[in-house]
Amino acid sequence: MIIYLRVLAESFSFAVSALVNNKLRTFLSLLGVTVGIFSIIAVLAAVDSLERNIKEGLSGLDTNTMYLTKFSFGPTDVPRWQRDNFPQTEYKDFDFVRRNVSDIGAIAFAILGGSETVRYGGQTLTNVGVTAITDGVYQIEDLKIAEGRFYTEAESEIGAPVIVLGHSVAENLFESEYPIGKEIRVYGRKLQVIGVLKKYGSGLFESPDDKAYVPVNFVRQFKTGGAQGLPGAIIITPAKDVDINAFEANLVQNIRIFRGLKPDEPDNFFINKISGFTQFIDGIIATMNFIGWLISGFSLLVGGFGIANIMFVSVKERTNIIGIQKSLGAKNKFILLQFLFEAVILALVGGLIGLFLVWIATLVASQFTGEFEFVLSFGNMFLGFLLSSVIGLISGIIPAISASKLDPVEAIRTGI
């Protein structure tokens, strides 16, 4: 056992000496592996970070949550001209669904899109995401109140002139003032602030910190709906332990009946599920990973060829030394390990440099993007380390074998 350890130590020592004595060649070999590992791990880290940010943005929603609207949130086989002729989802659709569809855990009606200007005193905030929605959103999005309260079902029904602000909106609008009870202007109308949400922090999607919520019936008093009006959506979370497929089938059937669709007519609406959206995202992530591996793999391949080429040159240069070592009793495995260690060390150092550069890149990118956080996971770091080792083994095995099989007499003669 001690002999084998000594052989390994001596082989390692020879390999390190050879790399140190040929600095330029070592640097050029490192460069190829560094670029390859950097490319692959950087792509994987970016894709993983994207996936994590998307799922964190959807974490507050039940994956069974459904959006009933005229728009499809993903690819669809329905032709564009047909989708354009779908009727808007209106408040009357919402009213029918909540009264006639069973097993609903929470339901809300929202008017989609739109940024507004919010004013208080001399302070003005532009492009604030004001969401006109019924009180059910409080349960669906699992909103948390820091101060005051959310509007009630009664206030939602009558369209009371009240508003709930996100943390950042309240902070920027009122600064050190207490916001509850204050009147602000939105849509050119006065609204009373009755609540402020807790601080959520930034994310890939719009954070509740930068939003405000008002009763949808307040907005419906002065903004038109209907076919040419504002687009709407019914948001539904089924009750717990409900068969989702049966619930969706029942929902579809009720909407078809309410809209007077004949049995041979197609649906003129879409039911978009969060679970379907996450599956769609997973498919995109998988494709991005594959493309990243494909493109970065070429860089890694070039790095591997570079190490193999350098190792063959190294064997050629040290043929005389190999012959002397073998004539003095060095066994084939000692020569094999000597060159194999050299290749693996080259690949590992290149890989570690590549990982270090990715880590620096993630820190810099996170600072510049602000709301998007890049993360270099332990799994990706281990993968980079493993890939480096494999590249070194594969690239160095053939040169190492050829070196170990040299005839000592011929090797010494060749080197003279």
List the helices and strands and how they pair.
Layout: H1 2-21, H2 23-57, E1 66-69, H3 80-84, H4 91-100, E2 104-111, E3 115-120, E4 123-133, H5 137-140, E5 145-148, H6 153-158, E6 162-165, H7 167-174, E7 183-186, E8 189-197, E9 211-214, H8 216-219, E10 232-238, H9 244-258, E11 270-273, H10 274-317, H11 319-327, H12 332-369, H13 378-404, H14 408-415
Parallel strand pairs: 4-9, 6-8
Antiparallel strand pairs: 1-10, 1-11, 2-4, 2-10, 3-4, 5-8, 6-9, 7-8
Subcellular location: Cell membrane
Domain MacB-like periplasmic core: 26-252
Transmembrane segments: 27-47, 290-313, 334-361, 381-403
Overall structural domain count: 2
Describe the global form. Answer: elongated
Tally of contiguous helical segments: 14
Structural class: alpha+beta
Reported for the largest beta sheet, the result is: 11 strands, mixed
Q: How many beta strands in the DSSP annotation? A: 11
Spans of at least 5 consecutive residues whose pLDDT stays below 50 are none
**Mean pLDDT metric:** 79
Rg for CA atoms: 33 Å
- Taken in chain order, the helices and strands follow as HHEHHEEEHEHEHEEEHEHEHHHHH
Can you give the helix content as a percent range?
Answer: 55-70%
Could you tell me how far the N terminus lies from the C terminus, measured between alpha carbons in angstroms? 36 Å
Beta content comes to 15-25%
Keywords: Cell membrane, Membrane, Transmembrane, Transmembrane helix
Protein name: FtsX-like permease family protein
Main location: membrane
Membrane topology: Multi-pass membrane protein
List keywords for this structure.
alpha+beta, 2 domains, eleven-stranded mixed β-sheet, 14 helices, single chain, elongated, 16% strand
